[in-house]
Design a protein that fits this description.
Layout (H helix, E strand, L loop, with lengths): L1 H7 L16 E8 L5 E9 L2 E8 L6 E8 H7 L8 H13 L3 E6 L2 E10 L2 E13 L2 H92 L10 H12 L3 E9 H4 L5 H7 L5 E8 L4 E6 L7 E2 L4 E4 L4 E4 L2 E5 L2 E5 L3 E5 L4 E4 L2 H4 L3 E14 L1
Antiparallel strand pairs: 1-2, 2-3, 3-4, 4-7, 5-6, 6-7, 8-18, 9-10, 9-18, 10-12, 11-14, 12-13, 14-15, 15-16, 16-17, 17-18
């Protein structure tokens, strides 16, 4: 209300000097100008005087456009007003507004206000030129705007200082965190290195223990095996594979072994000595073979004879593959013994060869013979 009062306090110059416009009655309208800008139009009425007051909505400069006219002023614009009173002119202008017979045209620092009206069945118009004028409130607005700009500048400076300070703090925090992270990482790397070294030492110790255990096991097995069998082919601990087959087929254990024949020891050119010592004897026999490539294998014969026979107790074995093959056919061939069960494993004694027609079970097909043995088995 105070602002409205200040805005309307200008003095009528054409009539009754000293009279304040805010004391007059008025009508207020919102009008769209030719430039599509929205304006507020106020028309004030006094007994001998009509004043026009226009303000552009949204104008931050708060500029007002004003003009006041007496009867004489209206007559200068159009002679028809000579025959009308102020009341009739006022009503005529309001009617023109209601009929949208008004145009507002803004030109630089002036506004042209055009009224189109009808008098005695005849249309006519007048054009008023309103001068720009700032109200007293402009000074307050200017001061307020200056204060706002000052505060914005101060806020900007504070924000810049804050951002700079935040940047410095963030850098310090990042540097501190990085130093701490690097420190912890170095400590962890050192701990990991120590643990790795400790693990390596423990693995060495475990490997040494394994070696010691292996030596103890081999020594123990050696005592047991060497007490049972004197063989250049069988290794420490291999005898258990043959014992497993005998245990399954005969439910017995090996008590001891007796060497009947060793090819490398006899150096015979014929096979007759092997037959003489190993066939048609009332005892169990194992045949052990090693090739020149190191493959170690053999077979168990429960009833040795010179005839082909199928027994449920004969079986073959491979030390290298740790494998037992049961229910084999045994053939005391004149060139050397053969075992078969969907495969053939045999010796060609005269050609010094060991052949096999099943590489899956024994790991080879045909290799030169390095040595073979025959042992009598005593069971319990």
């Amino acid at each position: 209300m105070e602002n409205e009062k200040l805005r309307n306090e200008f003095i009528l110059k054409e009539s009754q000097p000293g009279k304040i416009i805010s004391e007059l009655s008025f009508k207020e309208f919102k009008v769209i100008g030719i430039d599509n800008q929205l304006y507020i139009l106020k028309i004030f009425k006094e007994q001998t005087y009509i004043a026009f007051h226009i303000k552009e909505i949204g104008d931050i400069q708060n500029i007002f456009y004003r003009k006041g006219l007496t009867i004489e002023g209206f007559c200068d614009l159009n002679i028809i007003f000579k025959y009308l009173s102020i009341e009739e002119i006022y009503d005529l202008l309001l009617e023109s507004l209601r009929d949208s017979g008004i145009k507002i045209i803004k030109k630089e620092n002036k506004i042209n206000l055009n009224f189109i009206f009808e008098v005695m069945g005849k249309k006519d118009d007048i054009s008023l030129e309103l001068e720009s004028e700032k109200s007293k409130i402009d000074f307050e607005i200017i001061k307020l705007n200056e204060k706002i700009k000052e505060m914005e500048s101060s806020n900007k400076k504070i924000k810049e200082e804050f951002d700079e300070y935040k940047k410095i703090i963030d850098e310090k925090i990042n540097i501190t965190l990085k130093n701490e992270i690097d420190k912890v990482q170095k400590e962890n790397e050192k701990k990991i290195k120590n643990l790795e070294n400790e693990l390596i030492e423990k693995e060495k110790y475990i490997n040494e223990l394994k070696k010691d255990i292996g030596f103890i096991r081999n020594d123990f097995t050696n005592l047991i095996d060497k007490g049972k069998i004197a063989s250049n082919i069988i290794n420490f601990g291999d005898l258990y594979l043959i014992e497993e087959g005998i245990q399954k087929n005969l439910n017995k254990k090996i008590k001891k072994c007796e060497l009947l024949f060793r090819e490398s020891l006899e150096r015979m050119d014929s096979y007759s000595l092997f037959y003489e010592r190993c066939y048609n004897k009332p005892f169990y026999i194992i045949i052990l073979v090693i090739t020149k490539k190191g493959n170690r294998l053999g077979g168990f014969i429960d009833i040795p004879s010179k005839n082909v026979q199928i027994t449920t107790n004969s079986f073959c074995f491979s030390f290298d593959k740790q494998k037992l093959i049961y229910n084999t056919t045994y053939d005391p061939n004149k060139n050397g013994p053969r075992f078969s069960n969907g495969f053939t494993l045999g010796l060609l004694y005269n050609h010094k060869r060991c052949y096999c027609f099943d590489s899956t079970n024994f790991g080879f097909n045909d290799e030169k013979l390095f040595d073979f043995e025959a042992h009598r088995i005593f069971l319990e």
